[in-house]
Design goal:
alpha+beta, Helix Hairpins, five-stranded antiparallel beta sheet, 12 helices, 12 strands, 55% helix, rod-shaped, disordered N terminus
């Protein structure tokens, strides 16, 4: 039986969000297109009506549009064709060519002698309208007339020509005939600034559409990031509970086993074994108490403002004591070297928290290492700040994980790191201590090459 493959939740969320954004963009584009077409139709209707008004005005004022003289020239041209008898006994291929030539000549005559474009431009200018117009002509048909005989040779099917590039806005359809020809043509105009005008008219709608799309995208990104952050925090919380359970269970199990062994006859009769078992119980009790106190302290920090007991401290001797004490307790586990050049330097610090901070960094340097650990501690004064650097040869941290190492409960999820006990609170604790002293902590690391933690503390 085939198992249905489950789509990962993250991928499903991204796909659904992208699909929603795409649908909205398409809807907005469709809406804008409808608005654009509506505005374009209103624009064309407006200038069509204005053009009709202009023609009536020109007619009343007896202003010539130039087509009268053009038609007279076309009549002479037609007479020339009739006299030359080019239209008689012409083959089909030659007839098509002749038709195109004649229509082109007529079109050139109309454009060369018309004055309507200039008149319309002046008419629009007087009314503070866009007067930058382009003209266009479409010849519908042309027929020769010879002694009342019509030769339907030069018939054009919608012959589009002109500067408009398309039919534009129809101004009027002209028809004319005399003893030599019959002609029908349409005169069009196009407003050069039409696109800009329409863009201004739909600017508000366009702005709303763009802003709504941007808002939806931002909301999706924020919601997605919040969801992923909640998921990450949930996973960290789960890991913390698991780690805490393991950390607490280990000393409790040891104490339970040790206490039961004290009830055994062979142990009760052996003073040395009683002392050894008691020490084991005491050691595990201290470890258990340390874990509980650490969790309680951080819980208190979250609810109240953390205020260390700041006092003037000669940092050199204090740091040397911390390192020497740590080296004495771990000399069999690691090689620890120090170079502390802080003689006479005094800073304001809480010695207890400062000791905890350094011990946590040193402990991590030893715990997270696959070979014999080597730790180099350096301390120096640069004129305004004290710098404490702790370098190790451990497993290192990838660039992707570096930005999260100081997060609460976070533990680097790769390699053998989870074989090492911890609650993911050590570096979080260290970072809070450094910040409470007005300093900063940075880390540089490469996988399998080790890490360097650098703490900078002010002297003022």
């Amino acid at each position: 039986m085939k198992r249905e493959r489950k789509v990962p939740r993250k991928k499903l969320i991204i796909t659904s969000g992208v699909a929603a954004v795409v649908v909205m963009v398409l809807v907005q584009l469709y809406t804008l297109n409808q608005i654009w077409q509506q505005k374009d139709e209103l624009f064309r209707l407006k200038y069509h009506e204005l053009a009709k008004e202009a023609l009536e005005t020109f007619d009343r004022e007896s202003q010539t549009d130039g087509f009268e003289s053009a038609l007279e020239s076309i009549s002479n041209y037609s007479q020339h064709i009739i006299d030359s008898e080019l239209h008689i006994d012409t083959g089909e291929a030659d007839l098509d060519l002749l038709t195109n030539l004649v229509i082109r000549d007529i079109y050139d005559i109309l454009l060369a002698e018309e004055r309507l474009t200039l008149l319309l431009s002046g008419f629009f200018s007087e009314r503070d309208l866009d007067d930058d117009i382009r003209r266009g002509l479409t010849i519908n048909y042309f027929e020769l007339v010879d002694k009342n005989i019509v030769y339907p040779v030069f018939i054009s099917e919608d012959f589009p020509t002109g500067d408009t590039g398309h039919k534009g806005i129809l101004v009027s359809r002209f028809r004319s005939e005399d003893n030599n020809f019959r002609l029908s043509f349409d005169y069009y105009i196009d407003i050069a600034g039409k696109q800009l005008t329409l863009m201004r008219e739909i600017f508000i709608s366009l702005s709303i559409s763009v802003l709504s799309i941007v808002a939806v995208v931002i909301i999706f990104i924020v919601a997605y990031r919040n969801l992923m952050e909640e998921r990450r925090l949930s996973e960290l919380k789960t890991d913390f509970i698991n780690n805490m359970t393991h950390e607490l269970k280990t000393p409790l199990s040891t104490i339970t086993v040790a206490s039961k062994s004290l009830e055994m006859e062979r142990v009760m009769s052996d003073r040395n074994r009683i002392v050894e078992t008691a020490r084991l119980i005491g050691k595990q009790s201290v470890s258990l108490n340390r874990l509980i106190n650490l969790i309680l302290e951080i819980s208190i920090w979250e609810r109240t403002e953390f205020e260390p007991d700041i006092r003037s401290v000669a940092i050199g001797p204090v740091l040397n004591d911390i390192v020497d004490s740590f080296r004495a307790g771990n000399y069999e586990q690691a090689d620890i070297y120090s170079s502390i050049r802080l003689e006479g330097i005094v800073i304001n610090a809480d010695v207890t928290y400062l000791t905890t901070m350094v011990n946590n960094l040193l402990s991590n340097a030893i715990k997270y290492c696959k070979r014999r650990p080597r730790v180099d501690i350096e301390g120096y004064y640069d004129g305004s700040t004290v710098t404490i650097s702790i370098k190790d040869n451990g497993i290192g941290i990838s660039d992707e994980q570096l930005k999260m190492v100081f997060d609460k409960f976070y533990r680097v999820p790769h390699g053998d790191i989870h074989k090492t006990k911890g609650l993911g609170l050590g570096l979080y604790y260290v970072e809070r201590i450094v910040r409470s002293h007005g300093g900063r902590i940075t880390v540089e690391s490469e996988p399998d090459q080790g890490s360097t933690f650098t703490v900078t503390l002010p002297t003022g």
